[in-house]
Design brief:
about 160 residues
Length: about 160
């Protein structure tokens, strides 16, 4: 069996590669409106691939879902709905403010929300005071960077 840490790091690197290059196919979609290739991307990334990977990698997938408590499925669906709405809003925001600024701002906010929401909803008491302080400092730093990006964009805008 492979080293779990090495396998996990490899998956993180692979995910980063895919996340960083997700818009590469748009280079060959001349004449397509942004909304069209965003819809194609979202359908593939958020509907087709997850189910395909689950069916291929999880034996007896239906039995797994039957064994999961209804409350867990409801929470998962709620978080998934939030993620999906965020992905749709991402497409609209990028269309409005541009890819470079939109991507930086939205991913920063998503990372902040993705850290805080599960901790607030599921993680009562899981962080000690030291870890909570480090997490809060990291989130504050990230939000400060997002504000600086917005300010830089505003100052560099023509007019």
């Amino acid at each position: 069996m492979a080293d779990p840490l090495a396998a996990g790091l490899a998956l993180v690197l692979l995910a980063g590669l895919f996340q960083g290059s997700f818009m590469l196919p748009s280079k060959w979609m001349n004449g397509w409106a942004w909304e069209n290739y965003w819809l194609l991307f979202a359908t593939t990334a958020y509907l087709v691939c997850p189910w395909l990977f689950a069916v291929v990698t999880v034996p007896r997938l239906a039995e797994v879902y039957v064994g999961v408590p209804h409350a867990t499925i409801a929470q998962t669906l709620a978080f998934g709905l939030g993620w999906g709405l965020g992905a749709l809003a991402f497409g609209l925001a990028v269309d409005a403010i541009g890819m470079a600024l939109g991507y930086a701002v939205i991913v920063g906010i998503a990372a902040t929300a993705g850290t805080l929401v599960p901790l607030l909803v599921l993680g009562h008491g899981t962080l000690g005071p030291a870890r909570a302080a480090v997490t809060a400092a990291a989130l504050a730093l990230m939000l400060a960077a997002i504000c600086l990006l917005g300010l830089a964009n505003h100052l560099s805008a023509p007019g």
